[in-house]
Amino acid sequence: MTSTQPTEPPTSDFILAARDGATAHVAEHGAHVCRWRTADGVDRLYLTPLPRQRGEPIRGGIPVVFPQFANRGPLPMHGFARTAPWTLGQPTHMPDGRARVVATLADTPATRALWPHAFALELAVTVGGDALDVELRVRNAGDAPFDFTCALHTYFATRSEAAQISGLQQRAYVDNLTGAPGVDQGAGPLVIDRATGRLYFGVADALTLTDAAARVDIEQDGFRDVVVWNPGPNPPGPLPGLPADGYRYFVCVEAAVIERPVLLAAGAIWHGAQRRRVAQTGPR
Questions:
Q1: Residue 240: CB partners within 8 Å, gap ≥ 6?
Q2: φ, ψ of residue 130 in degrees (nearest 5)
Q3: What would the CATH number be for the domain defined by 12-279?
Q4: Is the pLDDT at 191 greater than 90, yes or no?
Q5: What is the pLDDT of residues 134-164, one digit of tens each?
Q6: How far does Cα 12 stand from its chain's mean position?
Q7: Is residue 25 within 8 Å of residue 47, measured between CB atoms?
Q8: Which of 52-56, 200-204, 210-214 has the lowest average pLDDT?
Q9: If you write DSSP's letter for every residue of 94-149 in order, what string do you get?
Q10: 71 DSSP assignment
Q11: Which residue, 80, 173, 238, 278, is the most exposed by fewest CB within 10 angstroms?
Q12: Distance from C-alpha of 246 to C-alpha of 243, rounded to nearest angstrom
């Protein structure tokens, strides 16, 4: 069986370490959270074991999607933030022992050639105990409004055939694989037993991802939408950086803004966050 975790994540600039032993690997490339280990030493994010070519997105972890979700617009897939070089600040420890770092990205001639707007992004990553918080802040640094879509594209490490997501029952969605609308009909959790690409709009409630080994509670602020994605064994197109059996080891539960883009006035700030907490663990 193909290994699902490399010895070290690619392009990791430093390890953010809480006083209780929880860690997050954060890369300058895309301000990408490559790995999250809870204080018990368990990896909670999937990261591809395959090597990555220079400049390519990192497959796994938590890619930052901005200013365009997927191919819903004229920009490259998922925008440019996930492949841009961010500036990483100095990590700090909070009074409760959690560790925090803030990464920043501002517009450049290269970004303005793709998207002609002045902006400033901040990504704050906070880790400790059984929790990981990631907050995205977008500031319009120009003199005219702009709109954008965005997401935190979290790859949770789980055996996909055993994964279930609670909190989306009876909700309408759009199938991102076919474009067709649908509604979860069952009263039980969503089971990831096939290729899944669903866009749920207007989700305010907390979600729970469970498998045989753990329960992860997922909350979001600012982000109005949720994406659930797993490509299954026969994706419709090539997925660079993913092993043939990689789909078996993750489910993406993404905090997103897709249906109604954020319209941000000059000088205004938008804020969104996704919080993940391992609430229960079992035998592995």
A1: 56, 59
A2: -110, 20
A3: 2.70.98.10
A4: yes
A5: 999 999 999 999 999 999 999 999 999 999 9
A6: 17
A7: no
A8: 52-56
A9: -TTS-EEEEEEEE--HHHHHHS---EEEEEEEEEETTEEEEEEEEEE-SSS-EEEE
A10: T
A11: 238
A12: 5
Q: How many CA atoms lie within 13 A of 156 on its CB side?
A: 34
Distances (CA, A) of 188 to 169, 184, 205: 7, 9, 16
Percent of the chain with pLDDT over 90: 79
Can you read off the two tokens belonging to residue 224? 């109005």
Number of H helices, E strands in the chain: 1, 21
**Does the global pTM surpass 0.85?**
yes
Strand partners, 246: none
For residue 277 the two structure tokens come to 């907490």
Residue-range domain boundaries for the chain: 12-279
Tens digits of residue pLDDT in 264-284:
999 999 999 999 999 876 554
Q: What is the pLDDT of residue 281?
A: 67
**Tokens coding 214:** 């753990």
Q: What is the pLDDT of residue 6?
A: 40
**Widest CA span in the chain:** 55
- Indicate the pairing of strand 207-210 with strand 196-200: unpaired
